Amino acid sequence: MIISESYLHFDFPSYRDPLEVGEFVFPFVEYAASHFFLKLSDKRRTEIIIVDGSIRLKGLISISAKVLIGYGSIRSGIDYLAQDGKAAANWVNRYVQEQLKLPNDAVIARRVRTPGPTRLLRLYENVRSGTMSPEEATRRANKLFIEYGESDGMIHELIVPMSRELQLLAPQNDKVVLKKKYLGGAIQETHSRRETFPDERVRPLVVPARRFRIVRDSSGRIKVIDESG
To answer: Where are the alpha helices (DSSP H) in the chain?
Structure first.
């Protein structure tokens, strides 16, 4: 589960190799993974994704969803991970800009996200607002944990308490009424949708951009994976 995502899109001198930049930045994301999640004993996975041209640098910190069990309640764990994940991503963006000596006008876009905790938090919010039943939210949570690669046994440990929390959070009325709104004369159900950001809009590229993923392998060495396809 990705608990922290920093993103920095910037112009950089053409003579600097994007991979060199990525390998230089990688230890900063590793530091954030350890410093901002001190209470978590589970192994964290750190990645850097680079798309060159103007450089798009994405730092990802991942950890098993089982850490949610250690916070007293699943909801509390989600809130803590979201808070710490944002703090870590903000620090990475600021520190990378400082270390690369990037002036503000060189930064095209920056963002901070906590994809895993945010998706789970929306299930709680949808149940509380009455736009989703606890049963449907539980089913969707189960799918998310499968997507995050959790084992069947761990999913059971997570789903049982989460289902209880969702049931208690639901409005007291027997029926959950989906909120609707009129758009152009047609009624459309409102659903929770993924956040979009201006820098995610499709832009024409003069030349195909190269995409690389930087990770640390089992031997402790930094490994570059070409995902240009």
So the answer is: 18-35, 74-99, 115-129, 134-147, 152-169
Q: What is the pLDDT of residues 2-32, one digit of tens each?
A: 999 999 998 876 657 788 888 888 999 999 9
CB atoms < 10 A from the CB of 164, how many?
Answer: 14
In this prediction the pTM is 0.76
At 132, give phi and psi (nearest 5°): -150, 140
**Do residues 146 and 155 lie in contact, with contact meaning Cβ atoms separated by under 8 Å?**
yes
> For strand 180-183 and strand 2-10, is the pairing parallel, antiparallel, or unpaired?
unpaired
What SS3 class is residue 219? coil
**String of DSSP letters for 50-79:** EETTTEEEEEEEE--GGGGGGGSSHHHHHH
Residues 136, 119: Cα–Cα separation, whole Å: 14
Give the H/E segment covering residue 216: strand 211-216
Residue in 118, 63, 57, 59 with CA at minimum distance from that of residue 89: 59
Alpha-carbon gap, residue 133 to 78, rounded angstroms? 20
Q: 3-class secondary structure for 161-192?
A: HHHHHHHHHCCCCCCCCCCEEEECCEEEECCC
